[in-house]
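Subject: complex prediction, re-run

Hi both,

The earlier run crashed halfway through, so I resubmitted it with identical inputs.
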Amino acid sequence: MIFEQFRDAAHRYRDQSAIIDEDQRITYGQLLEHVAGMRGWLRNVLNPVAGDVIAASLSNVWQFAACFFAVSELGCVFMPCNPQWRAGELRWFAGRLKFRGVLTEPQFRAEWDRLGDLIAPHSLLTVDHAAIRCEPGDTLDPRAFPGRSEDEPALYLPTSGSMGMPRLVPRSHRNLTAGARNVAHTLGIGPGRRLLAGVPFYHANGFHNCMLMPLISGATLILMRQFNAAACASLIHRERVDAVIGSPFLYGILADGVADASLLSTVQHCFSAGARMPAAVASRWRDRFHIRVRQWYGMSETSVVSIDCSGQEPPSGPGTFVGKPIRGVEVKCLHPEGGDLGPGAKGELAVRSEAVMSGYAGEPELNEHIFHSGFFKTGDLGHIDAAGNIYLEGRLRRVINVAGVKVDPVEIERAVESLSSVAECHVDAVPNGRESEVIRARIVVKPDLQITRRDVIEQCRQRLAEFKLPRIIEFVEALPTTIAGKRPTEWKTDEP
Amino acid sequence: MDAFLTNAGSGEPPRRGSEDTMNRIRRVFVESLHLNLSPLDLDYEHKLDEFAGLDSLAVLEFVTALEKEFGITIEPELLRLDFVRDLPQLASYIEGQIPRSPAAPASHA
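This time it finished cleanly. Structure:
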């Protein structure tokens, strides 16, 4: 079980530094004690049974890790939530998963407080920044977990759908262990490695690779609470960070904003995931910091699929080079009709490994169609060359990628179309001139009615997390029919 | 810094930056965020975030571009939408951050 992986690492590396979170320096032994204390507190307050789901709305704080391991030790399932979600978005998940409890920070409570009909006030818990002390008798059970299966979910990860509704990805104990071990092995992460978490833990990459992977491997995890380039560079220097896991957005900001390149002198490896790394950013990193930022490719459903570990300039070929499959992962390319394609041919990438989920939660019909001979169909287009290198060339479905985060355009269209003056809205992504994308909403206003950009923005702000706000808002006479196409089936939302 | 943000409570009118600074900021705003707008569309009656949906990443992109444009550093505590959305206030702050060159007059009357 995933808790045992952590517990074994904590015993083996007891005095090693596990987490550095601002002025807090927590060893593996101390973290295990915090987990025991957290677990005792949760058991007393929530009285959960195995299989209950406990949600968390937390930023990158050490308590995130302690909460996850405490929840999994109790046999419960952890669900990380994006603190930017509004009440309507939270309600969708709370209604389906029936949270036993919610762990949040004080500044993120407000939207949860609006779900009083679904979450009893006593089960909405605030994790403050003081350590929770162990009570006597709060020792963790040293035995293996009787009657529990490695294939039960330990985690639910939300992921963007493409029909206006999110999807839930169950991550089993087996999935999490295999994914973390394979990444750690491929990257050589273990005791003595000092890794900076440059992406949020509540997203798949952050959870799997910034939080879980280092902590079951004996490495030291350095956290960054507020992001600005100067503070990040000082942190890297002060804590002698040797590896950074980030996104193209992070590397872009650092490339421009770090005045003194020598602050990054301890960094040996930088990994970027979530979206394509702009060539200009990659060049600036090579020229200023003499570091080649390496791409990696993965998703909530599979964890990491491939990493560029070659240490050389990427080979040329159409699409974005994302390396070779990591240990334990097989990748193939599928023809639209379903057969396997040979090297160089473009098709849908499909993945098989112990880290791949067995299917979306609560979607039995969808799950019939997402596997081909045991390989998960990713929805990504690309090709694999004769040497086994993987190249990404696009997506099959309408999903927008904003700074590495997937966004469902239909959700935004629905929010805008709920305004009474709006006839129709189409949302897509447009390039921002830095090889990344921003969200654009094109809106047809009803005849003789008025609307301002401000009206649209306010409506979206009320209903949607801020990363889903359309950056560009245009009013048009009509939407091109080739783009608008058929409307997706109307789903009822649970909004009050 | 708190005094800067709350000086309206003292009965004085909020300070406004110069037209030139505000025009430069408007240009940086539309260029750095790749908005399909002209700087002239950003009238002074509205706040900047009424013209585009801005999240915290957009604020960061905008502020980074302002720092480059004016050769200044903006205090991390001000990396907030409620601060950067006010164009006259932002212009006044930026002018206060620009280092005076050695050749400039030592004091104002």
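Residues 482-496 of chain A have pLDDT under 50 and may be disordered.

- K.
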